Amino acid sequence: MSTIEDPIQRAYQTFQDELIEAGLLIPMGVPGLYARSGLFESVVEQFEKFVTAMAAERKSEVIWFPPVFNRRHYLCTDHIETFPNLMGSVHSFTGKDREHLELIRKRKSEEDWTRDLNATEVMLLPAACYPLYPTATGVLPEEGRTVDLRSFVFRHEPSIDPARLQSFRMHEYVRLGTPEQALEHREYWLQRAEEILRAIGLDVTPVLANDPFFGRGARMMAATQQEQNLKFEMVVPVATAEKPTAVASCNYHLNHFGHSFGIRTADGNEAHSACVGFGLERVALALFRAHGFNPASWPASVKKVLAL
Ligand code: AMP
Ligand code: ZN
Question: Would you say 272 and 178 are in contact if contact means Cβ atoms under 8 Å apart?
Fold first, then answer.
């Protein structure tokens, strides 16, 4: 029996235990890091096909980025100012033989060898859309651009909540263009994401949201983001109905990335951008929670939509 007193934390632990027991998640010894079973992945795959079919009318360009990107580009965003606690920086060994011997000595004597490493030229992606902006520098076509992206991303937020992972996949649709084009995209996806999630039997609610900014300015930044209606989340009960989980988000970035990366619209103004992001593991977990661990016994309507 669990000894955790807080009911929400207890619900997280119970759900995590059930998922591991069922073999859907395989723990890797670090909170928020799991391998997924074949069954789990088949659900993700079918959901991906469904989203792609539902988004087809938007005619997006597909781009696949690796899960790391240029450190210089990372520093052109304000991630280090706003979410330093979530970042992932890739370091490696760049010394010669002598430094290597020292590294091995430290590792054997269990001293801290990580300080002998140096930062590489890459960072882990904090969101699937980050690497897109630096590749879009310059002038956009008249009709703007709509891009379909998916990637593993990293966020250092260890947790017992099985829906709060350190390494997870986001499937995003990003629009670069005029303020009207970006806002239209956000409005479209607010409706479409809800429709998609309802079609798979999830009891979803759209809510005004804010990002978990770090540090002293956090409260102000969160309040401003809310006042400007910049972020909405689609929340669903997963581990507990008391604290529903965001399975997708719809964000309007104003000219934030257009300004940082010199992206311009055909009329010469700074581009605005908006994105919708589906958290793929969270969608799968919400499905397992809502309909049970065996997709064969899910409601017929859900099986039909997901072709399971
Ligand atoms: P965000 O960029 O924070 O709006 O995240 C986009 C989507 O990714 C969210 O709506 C979630 O579905 C998912 N997500 C965010 N953080 C996590 C996490 N730690 N673990 C799993 N999924 C996450
Ligand atoms: Zn995004």
Answer: yes
Domains and their CATH numbers in the chain: 38-88+126-306 (3.30.930.10), 89-121 (no CATH)
pLDDT at residue number 1:
55
Q: Ligand 2 mean position to 34 CA, how many Å?
A: 23
- Ligand 1 pocket, residues with Cβ under 6 angstroms: 127, 155, 157, 163-165, 168, 170, 233, 246-249, 277, 279, 281-282
Distance 305 CA to ligand 1 centre (A): 24
Distance 168 CA to ligand 1 centre (A): 8
Residue with CA nearest ligand 1 atom 17: 164
Model confidence pTM above 0.85: yes
Residue 48's identity, in one-letter code, is: E
pLDDT in tens, 220-256: 999 999 999 999 999 999 999 999 999 999 999 999 9
Tokens of 218: 């956090």
Phi and psi dihedrals of 117, rounded to 5?
A: -90, 160
Q: Mean pLDDT in the chain?
A: 97
Angle CA 164–238–251, to nearest 5: 60
